[in-house]
Amino acid sequence: MSDWHRLEEVTDELHGRGIVPVHVGGRDVCLVLHDGEIHAFDDACPHRRWPLHLGTLDGPVLQCRAHTWEWDVRTGELQRMRAPECLVLHEARERDGAVEIRIADDAPPARELSELWRARHGAAGRS
Ligand code: FES
Q1: Residue 34 sits in which domain range?
Q2: Dihedrals φ, ψ of 55, to 5°?
Q3: Residue 91 — very low, low, confident or very high, per pLDDT cuts 50/70/90?
Q4: Could you tell me the distance, in angstroms and rounded to a whole number, from the CA of residue 96 to the centre of ligand 1?
């Protein structure tokens, strides 16, 4: 079982914005705070790998900014479509004022953000 990664610097931002990108365990992860629970999943959209942290939240439903696909962040399931393009979920919790994330042991290799995105927004692709 993988270790918990402790991220002390994102707690305030997550409580303020409700959605925050982080880089942890060698992958880009999107954090969402909903109903007092922290949800963590790979930040690259399963469709064309656009950053999910730029999407919009409506309750537990996150809509990707690029082509409006939607997922329930609690389950990772795609909404309104039948394609099995689920989010890659990770464990997340808040302990002693810090966010902690444990990358799923069965997570597939991390996907890079789309080449189009990186070309438009720089090599890091995180701005
Ligand atoms: S890249 Fe997210 S819906 Fe297409």
Answers
A1: 5-116
A2: -75, -175
A3: very high
A4: 35
In the structure encoding, which two tokens stand for residue 96, read together?
Answer: 């002693």
In what helix (H) or strand (E) does residue 14 lie, and over which residues does it extend?
helix 11-17
CATH code for the domain in which residue 79 is found = 2.102.10.10
pTM confidence score: 0.88
pLDDT digits (tens, 9 = 90+) for 10-45: 999 999 999 999 999 999 999 999 999 999 999 999
- Neighbouring CB atoms inside 10 A of 110's CB total 16
Report the separation in Å between the CA atom of 50 and the middle of ligand 1, taken as the mean of its atom positions.
6
Q: Is 121 within a domain?
A: no
Does 127 fall in a domain? no
Q: What are the pocket residues of ligand 1 if the criterion is a CB atom closer than 6 Å to any ligand atom?
A: 45, 47-48, 50, 64, 66-67, 69
